[in-house]
Each structure stands twice: as C-alpha cells, then as structure tokens.
Amino acid sequence: MRVAVAAGPGRTALLKELADDGTGQGAGVLLNDLPDAVAGYARAGQVRWVWADTAETYPALLRAGVRVDRCHDVRLVGALLAGRDGGPGAAAGGAGGPAADRPAPGPGRLAAGQQAALFGPAEPGFAEVSTALDQLVAAHADQLRRIAADPHPGRFGLLAAVESAGGLVAAEMQARGVPWRADVHDALLASLLGNRPAAGLPPPRLAELASQISAAFGGRPVNPDSPAQLIKAFAADGVRIPSTRLGVLRDVDHPAVPVLLEYKELSRLHTANGWAWLDEWVSRGRFRPEYVVGGVVSGRWATRGGGALQIPRVLRRAVVADPGWVLVVADAAQLEPRVLAALAGDHAFAEAAGTGDLYQALAGAFGGDRAKAKVALLSAMYGGAGGEASQLLAVLRRRFPRADRYVEAAARAGEEGRVVRSRLGRSCPPPSAEWRGLTAEADDPDAAEQRARRSLRARGRFTRNFVVQASAADWALVLLGGLRRRLAALQDPGLDGSGPLDGPGLVFFQHDEVIVHCPEAAAGDVVAAIGAAAEEAGRLVFGDTPVRFPVSTAVVSSYADAK
DNA sequence: TTCCGTTGCGCG
DNA sequence: AAAGCGCGCAACGGAA
Fold first, then answer.
1. pLDDT in tens, A517-552
2. Cβ atoms within 10 Å of A234's Cβ, excluding its own
3. Residues 274-303 of A with CB under 7 A from strand C
C-alpha cells in the first residue's frame, strides 16, 4: 500500500491512502503524531510512504525511534524524470527537481522536541498543509504515469525505488554516524605535524618546513601555499615550471623540492582534515556527514561538508568500531569494467568478467600482461588515448568488439549533442547552450575550430564514461537498498527498547564500497547479507549475464585494516 | 570588506 | 607513473 503524507506543525501531519495508480480519495486524515502513525502502519503491513523529501521528513521519524521500510521520494524521483524528459532542474540532481515535482513544504517542519500542536481545519496553516498534500498526491500520480511510460518501465521503476531507498539510507547513515576515534586522529596529527598550535598558527612541523623551503631559495621569503610565489622563486633560481603540481615538481632538480613535497603532503592533511576538521565534524565519537543522494550527475552520491568521500587513507585508522563491535568493510572489485562487460553483452569479455580477477582474465589478449589489459580497459572507459593506450585499444577493439562498440557509440552520441542513459535509465545532462554555440559552426578560423573540436571530444569522453559510471552507480544503489533490507531483518524484532539505529547498520557508502557497523556476533550474518545483496544487484540490474560482481569483505576493528 | 575564478589534491 | 571520467574543499589573489 502507498500512503502519502505531508507534515504539519510539530508532529502533526495530513495523510492519505492511495490506490495503486496513485489516486487518493477524499480529504486527508489528520494525524496528531506522525511517528506514531507510521509505526502503526508498519505493524499492520507493508507500506510505501510517499512524501516530498526524505531528507526533510525522515530524520525526525528516526529521532522518534521510527524506521520505515520503503518510500517514494517525490523530489528525488522528480529529478530523475526531469533528467529524462529534459525539464528544468534536470541537472540539479539531489538539489531538487522543478517546482512541479516539489510540492510546497508544510509550514512547520518537525522540530525536535516540539510538542504536538493543536491542529485542525480551523487552525492557521492547515490550508497550506492540505494544499501540500494535494500537490504531493498529484505529483506522485504523475510520476507513476511517467515511469510507466518509459521504454523500460521495469528498470526505471527500479531506479526510482532505489533512489528513494538511498534517501532512507542517507538519513540513517547520518543519524548513526561513522564511529570515529578523535583521540586516535589527534595522536596521528601530533605525530606528523607536532603538537596542536594555537588557533591561526601553523603547526610546528609545517613552520619548520616552510623556513627550510625559504632557506633552500637562498633566504628569499616564499609562501609555500602560493603557487605563484613558488613559480617566481624557482624562476629566480633558473628553474622554469608550468605549475607546482606534484607530478611537475617531482621531476625538478632543486634543493627545495623534497622539502616542498613533504610540506604539501602535511599541509594538505592539516588544512583538509586537521584539528579544525576534527572539532567541527566529530562529536561524541561519531563523524556525521550529510549525504546528497544523486548529488553527482552519474547518480553517485556527494556530501555537503566534511568531505566524507575524500577521507584520506591515512586517517582510516581513526575509524574504529565500538567495543564488542566490528566494521564489515565491503568493496566491489573492478566494478566499472565488469559493468561495461555486462552492458555490452560481449561474450568473451563477459566470460572473463565471470572470474575473480577481470584484468588477469583478459591478460591473455594482451600478451599475458595484466597491466596492459588494465590500461586498455581504463582508456576505453575514460577516453584516454595517450602513449601506449591507442595500441592497446586496437587490441581491445579486435578481441572484444562489442565492448568497444558500446563505449564508442556512447562517445559518438555525446559528440553529436545527444544524451545517454545508464542501464536503469538515469540520463546524463544535455550539453549546455555554450557548448552548442561553440560546436555549431563547423568551418571557422583555426583557433575557434580547435576549441570546438576540443569541446566535442570532451563531451564524447563524458558520455562514454557516463554510461559506465552511472550504470555502476545503478548497481551500487541496488546493492545498498538490498543490503539495508537484509540488515533490518537481522535485527531482533522482539528486542524491547531497541531503536531503529541500534542494531547492525550501514555507516558509510563510497561509490563502490560500504561499511557496516555491527556487534561482533553478527559479522558472519552481515558478510552473508552483503554477498546476497551483491548477487541480487547483478541480477536485478543486468538480468541474465555471466558477469559476476564479486565483493571483497573484511571484518575489522579499524577501517585501516581492511584491504 | 566580500565574492569568485583558479590552482591543487584528496577520494572512487 | 600518469592518463582518461566524476566529485568537494581550502587557499590564494584579483575583482567588485
């Protein structure tokens, strides 16, 4: 059953049960306590909650101790549909669909601790909530129709479902938080940077390195954080460099270089994940980033603040399970090339992808060289053609023609200004007006023509990569939804007083990797759940394919010990 | 002073 | 080792 709900002041809400086609009967039912009502429905049977925005509604339910199994997020699904139909907001991703897909929020969000307000047709604000509910029901019914009208309604419907489930996972992960040992983090910083400096001052080690850098430039004062000053300083010593990138500096022969490289590495740690980050983002033993579902055009997630998807590897040792608990770290091995194998239906390629090490299985085609197989595949997926790649691509084309044709067709579509879609039907954004203008006129003066050609190629690389990256994101999202369902089943339903966040639960998701935090005794069940979810994801997204999507799992106390 | 484009680097 | 794709964030430095 589908039930639409629009929040009112406090814990109040208006609710309407929906028929299978999304239509509702009569006026909304007034609720004084939404969490209570949601829990009641859950006891009575399966419900898919229909609401405007999971990120707005669900956190308050979780705070009230109520979990929901399924939902339809009108904002997220609206963004998917807008992308497909070329509506406004198509590129907004997690930022929201067009106004038509986003019912006006009720006047009162569920504020924590707020008492249930008296609320009824006579109260101010009631009309707005009532209107919001009507708009929500209409938008949802419209979305169901548009999903059904897709060339692949089954796949696109699955995408809508897992995108919505992603919203639930994101809210739950933020509420749980990543277990984070501030003391371990602090000790690591101190060992690398010296003791914590007073606010605004550089750490001792950085100050020391900075003065060594100046000394290496003959005492000339140089701010090592300023690329412009560095380039000038090098030039004064007769060394001309185009930039101060790592790769450039590595090949420069100058006494400042080794010190500068160390400075850059430590400075990065200090500014991105130093004490200030620790203060701002870690509290009561948890790091709670805000996830943005569908925040990347390919369907990958983004985060807002905290840089959760760019946590440097060196900091993983600060991610430590609670006493008596463990982290189950799972990583989909070689996901993107496997996705390409399944997408293309290339028999020889798919057979190779039925094995544990895809690159090794393909090595035979490249003179037994696994590294060459890897370069060839990455070049095919990313559009690289430098150095040895073009030669390896020729091998790929000959031995695995369908895989080659698949990515080439995507690239051609991009160069022609068309849009491409992922396996489940997520659309890439259309080219910008600027791109169209730039690439429209064919025979221009040389410079303009060259710019146009560069834009064409860039767009081709984007769409070439999109079909793979976005389909991999499809798979990961289906895995995430299936894993969430299985983890919930692991909870002991008879356990009194346990909240929705107390048992085994997802605490981290990064493109092709998940972390589950769970009691030690549950680790075996969690590992099995991950394996089952991965198998299910392959089947649901790609149907009958010999391609396997193996997931490596590690049961560890610290994230640093995985892999 | 604030704003914004550029540079550089972390992650997949 | 870097490259081809996708991001977020911090610092710099010039513009407003």
1. 999 999 999 999 999 999 999 999 999 999 999 999
2. 21
3. 277, 292, 295-298, 300, 302-303
